[in-house]
Amino acid sequence: MSGRIHSIETCGAVDGPGLRYIIFTQGCLLRCQYCHNPDTWKIRSGKEMTVQEILQDIKDFLPFFQATGGGVTVSGGEPLLQIDFLAELFKELKKINVHTAIDTSGGCFNRAPHFLEKLDEVLTYTDLVLLDLKHIHQERHKDLTGLSNAHILDFATYLSDNHIPVWIRHLLVPTINDQEEYLHGLADFIQTLSNVEKVEVLPYHLMGVYKWKNLGLTYQLNGIEPPSQAQVLRARQILNHISH
């Protein structure tokens, strides 16, 4: 079993608990206007690697993970587009007691029986899902990413119904999704979920803009600056229902 891999980071500290070996898969259905890895979009691109090749590399780093309570996170792109590869990889990782996490936007989730059967298999080997919720408003979400958020919110509910531990991640973009009505709406939705262990607010940044230029793509958020610390703090308070 092999997957198409964009890149690998061997010592990540922000994509799940502890130090993490992070696999960035190739391919994504969303076209987020702020994407800092637009070079992951093409589905049939990237380097083909087998599960065994990746496992061999991971084993060299096992002592570092285990000392920090870390593990392996599969990010992207969108990992669930390569669900068979993901299932095989996680199955092997659980054999050696490695903590597993998926960093996903849920962009390819659907309730077709064939997909759910594969997803359920993956989730039996998954310790944590980092779920990116980009915008609560359906039309604004479509403007921002190219797709509606209906199936993504449905995915969040499915994870809750199946008791899969989740960290919600929300990338805060001034003028796009930082308005209090949207943040309160997202907070209300998160409150309907029973499996959320943590809510993270990630500040929008400009570090990936150069990739758009290199790929000949037009970056549509020119002129939007990263949020202030006060804006990030306010968003964290709302999404975590912290009164002030």
Automatic annotation (TrEMBL):
Catalytic reaction annotation: glycyl-[formate C-acetyltransferase] + reduced [flavodoxin] + S-adenosyl-L-methionine = glycin-2-yl radical-[formate C-acetyltransferase] + semiquinone [flavodoxin] + 5'-deoxyadenosine + L-methionine + H(+)
SUPFAM superfamilies the UniProt entry points to: Radical SAM enzymes (SSF102114)
Domain of life: Bacteria
InterPro entries assigned: Aldolase_TIM, BssD/PflA/YjjW, Organic_radical-activating, PFL1_activating, Pyruvate_for-lyase_activase, Radical_activat_CS, rSAM, rSAM_sf
UniProt entry keywords in alphabetical sequence: 4Fe-4S, Cytoplasm, Iron, Iron-sulfur, Lyase, Metal-binding, Oxidoreductase, Pyruvate, S-adenosyl-L-methionine
Cofactor binding mode and count: Binds 1 [4Fe-4S] cluster. The cluster is coordinated with 3 cysteines and an exchangeable S-adenosyl-L-methionine.
Domain annotation Radical SAM core: ranges: 14-244
GO annotations of cellular component type: cytoplasm
UniProt-listed Gene3D superfamilies: Aldolase class I
Cofactor (UniProt): [4Fe-4S] cluster
Function summary: Activation of pyruvate formate-lyase under anaerobic conditions by generation of an organic free radical, using S-adenosylmethionine and reduced flavodoxin as cosubstrates to produce 5'-deoxy-adenosine.
Family membership: Belongs to the organic radical-activating enzymes family.
Name of this chain's protein: Pyruvate formate-lyase-activating enzyme
